[in-house]
Fold this sequence. Notes:
The protein has helices spanning 23-41, 45-54, 58-65, 70-77, 81-87, 93-101, 111-117; strands spanning 8-12, 15-20. By secondary structure, the protein is mainly alpha-helical.
Amino acid sequence: MNELTEVQIIEQHGQPAFAVIPWDEFEAIEPTLKRHRALRDGIPHAVVERIALEDVHPVRAWREHLGMEQSAVAARAGMKQPALALGCRWQNPRGYAHQISQGHGPDYRTDRSERLIRGRSA
């Protein structure tokens, strides 16, 4: 069906309520609608929860929320998949700070660290 179809406006109480458009036009604007909704609605709770409570990298949390593979995200970002994977090997700073507060993490008082701080090689 290649004939041009006009947009149909449906009114309720004399006011425009709905617009019916051809399917191919809807498919063309759907990605823009999704981005607009995401900006309007803010960050989904599921994404925030993964980042804050599960120490998941923000890119990974969004990627999984959107159901995208690493290769698809990398392609859209103009990079290669291994580079994206390497960049996502990140621990949430909140999780790292918690580890340090519990006595885990690097010991900056070691002899090697002290020599590095004073500017001498290890």
